[in-house]
Write a structure and sequence with these properties.
Two copies of one chain form a homodimer.
Chain A (H helix, E strand, L loop, with lengths): L8 H12 L15 E3 L5 E10 L11 H17 L4 E11 L5 H14 L4 E8 L4 E10 L16 E4 L5 H13 L8 H11 L5 H9 L4 E4 L4 H12 L2 E4 L10 H6 L6 E5 L2 H10 L6 E7 L5 E3 L2 E2 L11
């Protein structure tokens, strides 16, 4: 972690970031020393890290650097949400070529951190060919009920998603379409989809509510419902039958299944009434039932048809 | 954070990494879910993140991907050492172009983590144009004596370094020289310097001992002694007079002052006898006295001459 006082460059940018952020409580040290010093609450700690690279995870011809920064924060916080945890602190490592507007990129990081109430406590800036942002998050979760893992779903558990899916993928499609038709203003529905792609929200409140409502397994929809639900099924040793997949207005069923970039949560829970009342008690919209876990671990079915996992992964050789 | 079960690519590489690592204690979850679940000890938590980019922080024509991975871990752990803390868990985000030997890179990460006794608990892999490794570390430190910050040095405090400096820079110079003279084998002294560059060690034990020995300010020598000691002086509002800067065998005084890449610790402490006896009690070589902190915050002197800060930082604009 780096910080200091020289004018211009890395130290000045971190200093400007520090001054736009709230300061630490007494006894803690945030940006400005070798490492941040923080006091974590009781319970279990959660740790996660995610990398966002321009040209791979987002196209800077379609979104601005502050959107890339926002998305990098939301993606990492979404992993904490998927455990049912609370995100308490984040550190950011950012890099880019000399022309990068690093202040703008970090403004997006700061806006997302503030919006999700998770303070930035440290950072490192570097040169790199491609704009790259890595957000690492520390969170916490109670011992009882503990974190919601991927592997706890049982046959008979009901499956839920926190909202209709596909808005992120539809937003990306809209951005690509409007980029090639610059004179046609997007419709207001399209603006909503684009916002879902540019500024996704991690479902931290929903994840914690699902945990308290007895969720047995949970994951965030980052690679697409079919792929992410496949991870849950594999880890839990169950199959699933979906009877209803809610599609966001303006998105397609294909985008809902395979698009990813939604950061809604999908979870399994044995007692639907308990889920509905827990979400209601917390002032949240009821999660949407989509199907059921089955004992046949080879079964991955939607509307009677077998699904192929439609997600993707990076490959090296 | 990403994990799963598909064959080949990202998930298979993370799976292989997971299987070569020790498993978590009961009640913890390491690589394989949305976030790692760990139990942190009492006291204060420390957090840091650092990015290493091939072509910027290390040249893959001179070192191998596993060296880049090792160095990325050491650089981040060194920030925990500089607080006097214990490194308890790390997460790694790694990226590179399709031809990258990601297994080899992660082998270096795993070797460094094992060697420093800090387990890898999570990871994320991505595509990118340049090989990039970001290591984020969680550590802990007692409340009393608490973490050693940069800003606690007082006039009259003595300054120490944990070992002679310049080996990292001299190792890099040696690599560059031997790359252009491939038929001349390096001397054994040169092999030692190259090793210091390829596989630096974070001085975690020394940092914790310095903290218990009353260190008032501490930093790791990553950008060069002059620059890093300048950060301590600025943060503490003191000056310094150096009378002896120990130079590693085979390195130059210039490399000791400005080279960086050493990851030794420099610290201020009021009581030299207490420092010597604490390091002796812990079975460590005595740290080397290099000078004293002074009340004149403009004073940055070596052997009677004023120093210019010789470090560097990344710039954007």
């Amino acid at each position: 972690m780096t910080a200091g006082g020289a004018a211009g460059g890395e130290f000045a940018i971190l200093d400007r970031l520090r001054h736009r952020l709230p300061g630490p409580p007494a006894g803690e040290v945030w940006i400005g020393d070798d490492a941040a010093v923080v006091r974590l609450g009781p319970g279990l700690a959660l740790l996660t890290t995610d990398m966002s690279v321009a040209g791979i995870h987002a196209d800077l011809a379609l979104v601005d650097p502050d959107d890339l920064g926002w998305r990098a924060v939301a993606v990492s916080l979404s992993d904490i949400a998927a455990m049912g945890g609370t995100a308490t602190h984040l550190v950011v490592a950012a890099a880019g070529p000399p022309a990068t507007d690093m202040d703008l990129l970090l403004a997006g990081v700061a806006e997302a951190a503030e919006s999700h109430r998770c303070p930035i406590v440290g950072g490192d800036l570097s040169a790199a060919e491609a704009v790259t942002v890595v957000v690492s998050v520390v969170g916490r979760v109670d011992d009882e009920p503990g974190p919601v893992l991927r592997g706890g779903a049982r046959a008979g558990d009901r499956l839920f998603v926190t909202a209709p899916l596909g808005a992120g993928a539809a937003g990306l499609r809209t951005l690509r379409e409007t980029a090639s038709e610059a004179d046609r203003p997007p419709s207001s529905a399209a603006v909503h989809l684009v916002e879902a792609y540019r500024r996704p929200r991690a479902r931290l409140v929903e994840g914690a509510t699902a945990r308290r409502a007895g969720a047995t397994a949970m994951i965030d929809v980052s690679d697409g419902l079919a792929a992410d639900l496949g991870h849950v099924a594999s880890a839990s040793g169950v199959g699933f039958r979906l009877d209803h997949v809610p599609v966001a207005a303006g998105a397609t069923l294909e985008e809902a299944f395979g698009g990813g970039d939604d950061y809604e949560l999908v979870f399994a829970a044995p007692d639907p009434d308990r889920v509905t009342s827990a979400f209601g008690d917390d002032g949240l919209a009821a999660p949407i039932p989509i199907g059921v876990c089955t004992a046949d671990r080879g079964e991955r079915r939607y509307d009677g048809e077998m699904l192929e996992a439609r997600g993707w992964e990076h490959r090296w050789g």
